[in-house]
Amino acid sequence: MPSIAGAAAPDAPRVLARPRRRLSPARLGLLGILPALVLIGVLILYPVGYAIWLSFFDKHSFFPAERWVGLGNYARLLRDPEFWDSLWKGTVYAAGTARRRSSWASVSGRPSCSTGPFEAGRSCAPSCFFPT
């Protein structure tokens, strides 16, 4: 009886291949951004959540002992004049930088930094970092 290589015997059960289901565009898009969402969760959301959780404790950086203080850290922060000074300096810097960028854009007729052609971004780069 001649046999063909790879052919199934006539009395062997046939296995029907199931048709492959196609993913909807929405699910395919979700699968595409899933690695980015995992990285955002691991690298951003977890550390922020952990920092918020730690802010309710009095914990040393190197020793495992910790003590619950609740909102005590925030109350101490609000009484600290150095906090208010640094908050004021940061606000002045941010406002000055934004004002400088918008005034440069209106004088030069070019959009603010990081938009437009390379030359425009390079010419206004110092105004992005140095407040007036």
Explain what you see.
This protein has 132 residues and is mainly α. It has a domain at 94-132. It has five helices and two strands, in the order αββαααα. The longest helix is centred in the first third of the chain and has 30 residues, at 25-54.
Annotate the secondary structure layout.
Elements lengths: L24 H30 L2 E3 L6 E3 L3 H8 L1 H28 L9 H6 L1 H5 L3
Antiparallel strand pairs: 1-2
In summary, what is this structure?
The protein is mainly alpha-helical and 132 residues long. Helix content is 58%, strand content 5%.
Strand order of the largest sheet: 1-2
Order of helices and strands: HEEHHHH
Q: Tally the helices: what do you get?
A: 5
Query: How far apart lie the N and C ends?
Result: 95 Å
Apparent shape? elongated
Secondary structure: number of strands: 2
**What is the oligomer described by this structure?**
single chain
Structural class: mainly alpha
Low-pLDDT segments, ≥5 res? none
User: What fraction of the residues are assigned to beta strands by DSSP?
Assistant: under 5%
Highlighted features:
132 residues, mainly alpha, two-stranded antiparallel ribbon, 2 strands, elongated
